[in-house]
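Table S2 (text version). Query chain:
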Amino acid sequence: MANDTLTGHPIPHQSRGETGLVAHVEGTLADFLATQIAALDAVDPALGGFARTARDLVLGGGKRLRPTFAYWGWRGVADPGEALEAILPALAALELMHTFALVHDDVMDESATRRGAPTAHRIFATQHDRDGRLGDADRFGSTSAILLGDLCLVWADQLMARAALGTATLFAARARYDRMRVETVAGQYLDVLGETQPDAWSLERALLVARYKTASYTVQRPLQFGLSLAAASASDSRSAVDAAYARYGEVVGEAFQLRDDLLGVYGDPLVTGKPAGDDLRTGKPTALLMLARRLATPAQLAELAEPALDPAGVVNPADGSGGPPIDRLADVIAATGAPDRVEELIRRRVDDGLAALRDAPLHPDARAALTHLAVAATHRPA
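Corresponding C-alpha cell output:
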C-alpha cells in the first residue's frame, strides 16, 4: 500500500490491487464481532458458538465490493480533511448486510456451498448430526441459518450507528441504506417468484430482477450511500454526482449479475466456489436462459423446456419426471448463441456506466477507480 493514512489524502486506493481498504474494513468487522461474541458467550456458550459461526461466515472471504463501491462513492466528493475512520463502521456494516442476504439466499436456493465452503444451513445441519440431537437436521440447519442472517442484519444496524457522523449525515445515509434493503428484498422475491412461473417470465423481467436483486445493493445504492456519508458541504455538485452514480450503478450492477448468470452455468466450481448449473437445476429464469429461449430453434426450445437432471442423473422436479442432464442444457444454451448475446449486454452496460462518469464532477482518483472497478467486477472468473 502506498499510503496508510486514514485522515486527509491520499487514502487507500483499493482499485489498484492494494489491500488497504479491505484490511481496514475487515479489521473493523473483526473488532466489532469480537465484542458481540463475548456478550453472547456470557449469556450461554451455545450462543457464543452461534455467533462464532456468524463471524466465520462474515470474515470467510468475499470480494468486499459493497464497502469498496461505498468508499469510492464517498471519496468522489469528500473534502481532504474528512477522515476515513469516521465512516469505516458504516462501510463495514454493508458486509454484515451482505452476509444476511447470502445466508438467506442459500437457504432459499438450497445451496450446499458458498465460496468453496459449506453454507450456513449445511454447517448447522452437520452440527446437529454430529451432536446426535433430536429432530430433523435439515430443518434445524435452515432455521438456524435464518436466525443467523437476521442477527447479521441487526448487527449491521448496530455497527452503522458507530460511525462518527453528524445526525443529519447519519439520517441521510440511513435513508439510502433502508432503500437498499427494501430493494434487495423486493428483487429476491421476484427471483423466487420467477422460479414458480418461468413460462410467464421474459428477458425484460429477468433484467428487472438483476436490477433490484443485484445492481441495487451491490453497486448503485452503495455508491449513493457513500456519497451520503460525505459532509454536506463537501460538494456543490452533489445532485450531478448522485445522478452519475445512479446510472453507473444500475448498468454496471446489471452487468455484474449477467456475469454471474454466465458463471452459474459455465464457471469453474473450483474458482467460483459453487457448483456449476445450480440455476439450470432449479429452473431459475435468468437473462441467459430467457435469451436462449428467444433465440432457440423449435428443437432446442423443446430441450430447454425439460426439467434438468443433476450430474448424477437425479431427477430435479417433485413429480419425478426426467429430462436432459445439466451439461446437455448448457450445451444447448451455448448453441443458441445466448452466451455471446449476454457478453454483448455486459459490454454495452459497462460502456454506458463509464459514459455516465465521464463528465461527472468527481475527484479524478475516484473516477479512475470506478472505471477500473466497472471492468474488474464484470469480467471476472468468480
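Notes on Table S2: Confidence is low (pLDDT under 50) at residues 1-18, 311-322. The longest helix spans residues 167-196.
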